[in-house]
Structures are given as C-alpha cells and as structure tokens.
Inverse folding.
C-alpha cells in the first residue's frame, strides 16, 4: 500500500495514473510535478498542453497515445497494453491525462486493467476542465442566487448508436434540463444543437445563456457566449471546435462582471480574424 509521502517516489514496474489539469501549468498538482521528476517513462494524451510538456525532464522516455491531426487515437485496449508492457519491463511509468483521469477520462478502465495484471499503481487526481474552464472564463459554476446543484455530463458517446448518432442515449436530456439549473458539458460541441433542442423541449428557455470555452486556461483560450436558441448557428458560423467546455445556465451572465483572463471573447464579428487553425 502507498502512503501519501511515498507514492510519488515510484518503484520500478509501477504506474502513476495522473491528471495534468486543463492546460495552465499553474494548475498542475505538486504530486504530478514530483512524479514528473521521479518517472522514467511518460504516456500522455493530446489534452496535456505544450506548456506542461515543456516541464518534462529531457531524460524521460515519451509515448504519445492521443489523437493528432484528425487521426483517431490508438484504441483503449492498445493503450492498456502499452501501460502493462512498460510496467512489466520495470519502467517507472507516469500515465498523464488532461484534466482529471477519472472525469470522462477513461482512467477507471486503465486502473482496472493494471489491477487485473497485478501492477502496483496510484492515482493523482487533476483539476478538471469543467471546473477550471468556467473559472478562467469568469463563470462561477455555482452561485447562491442561481443554483444549489450542477450537472456534469458528456455530450458525446462512442461508438455511434443504432440511429447513427453520438448523443448519449442513457441521458434523459429533457429531465436533466428541468432538474439542473446549471449544466457543464464535456465533449459537447458537436451535439450541442441536438442537446439544446432537447433541453428546450424539457422546458428550458431558448434564451438560457450558454458559454463555450475552448482551450480553457491556456494562452489559446477563447470564450463564446450564446443562447440555447442561437448555439447551433453560432457554432457553425464561428466553426468552434473541440476541445471546448460548455456551460449552460444563468451563471454564465456573471462573466459580464467576473471575466478576468486575457482577451478571450469570441463573437460572430471577430471570429473570422480570431479563428485558430490548431486542432
Ligand atoms: N479528463 C478530462 C476530460 C476529458 S474529455 C477533464 O477532467 O478535464 C475531453 C473533453 O474535456 C473535451 O472535449 C472538452 O470538453 C474538455 N476539455 C478538456 N480540456 C479542456 C480545455 N483545456 N479547454 C476546454 N475544454 C477542455
């Protein structure tokens, strides 16, 4: 068993499964920072920012297992196999994922696989994009005057279902809209037009404010404010792409007073000049 004092020292043949936070190195935990010094092998995703990758010591062997240039990532089974193989070869493996590994990060699947193989592992949680992204956009995801609860959902499920859609079928969107004043959507850009319609069908006003925060907490952060009614048009007009976190609810309005991070506002007027080519 690990103790809090020793887990980041890393025994050969063990894995630390950790979250890097959403991008800003200031949101990296001290635990991950120590693990970066202690590991000899790093397995990382596309959502680990270049700013954080710049902190990886040159001696660490790197394995990239994310999506790049529109190509699909290597499958989960292959990633599990890489982790097992490296650990069994006696490496000190740091498996680093964007945000938190157990929040829509498939960290549970990887830890399960390590457990089945008898490989010692520990978990270092990370700051999740659904909390830090809104904060960097000046949006408190709870506010006493607005909400006593908040829902975190994924807007995308894989593989595509029988109807050829990727909107999660296990979610009753109409009920979620009625029950949760504030909804934070991960992987929500592509399906937001459908989800917005279903929230409206469940009784939410079409004027409910919506924020899309792209590359949150990095120098590339861009925030677009829209509404449930206008979201589909605005997304297609401004070609908003992942990775973006979506916040739905009246808390978005606090941004008018609480915006503090850089000049990140994206509008229909400025998006043609401000569009970025990055993936
Ligand atoms: N484990 C991650 C989530 C992985 S799912 C976490 O806890 O944050 C991938 C989704 O996370 C993206 O589609 C996007 O919705 C969100 N995301 C992750 N990093 C982000 C960032 N820097 N800016 C905006 N959204 C981000």
């Amino acid at each position: 068993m690990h103790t809090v004092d020793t887990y980041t020292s890393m025994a050969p043949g063990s894995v630390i499964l950790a979250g890097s936070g959403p991008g800003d190195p200031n949101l990296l935990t001290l635990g991950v920072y120590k693990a970066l010094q202690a590991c000899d092998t790093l397995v990382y995703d596309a959502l680990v920012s270049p700013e954080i990758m710049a902190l990886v010591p040159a001696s660490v062997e790197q394995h990239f297992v994310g999506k790049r240039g529109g190509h699909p990532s290597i499958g989960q089974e292959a990633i599990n196999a890489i982790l097992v193989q490296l650990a069994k070869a006696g490496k000190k493996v740091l498996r680093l994922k964007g945000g938190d590994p157990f929040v829509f990060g498939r960290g549970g699947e990887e830890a399960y696989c390590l457990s089945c193989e008898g490989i010692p592992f520990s978990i270092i949680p990370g700051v999740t994009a659904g909390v830090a992204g809104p904060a960097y956009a000046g949006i408190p995801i709870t506010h006493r005057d607005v909400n006593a609860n908040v829902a975190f959902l994924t807007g995308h499920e894989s593989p595509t279902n029988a109807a050829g859609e990727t909107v999660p079928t296990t979610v009753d969107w109409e009920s979620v809209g009625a029950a949760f004043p504030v909804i934070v959507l991960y992987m929500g850009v592509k399906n937001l037009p459908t989800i917005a319609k279903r929230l409206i069908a469940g009784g939410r006003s079409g004027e409910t404010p919506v924020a899309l925060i792209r590359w949150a907490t990095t120098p590339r952060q861009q925030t677009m404010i829209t509404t449930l009614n206008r979201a589909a048009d605005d997304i297609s007009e401004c070609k908003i792409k992942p990775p973006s976190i979506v916040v739905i609810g009246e808390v978005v309005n606090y941004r008018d007073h609480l915006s503090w991070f850089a000049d990140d506002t994206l509008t229909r007027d400025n998006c043609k000049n401000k569009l970025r080519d990055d993936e």
Summary: The mean pLDDT is 93. The domain at 130-274 is CATH 3.30.950.10 (Methyltransferase, Cobalt-precorrin-4 Transmethylase; Domain 2). Residues 177 and 199 are 5 Å apart (CA to CA).
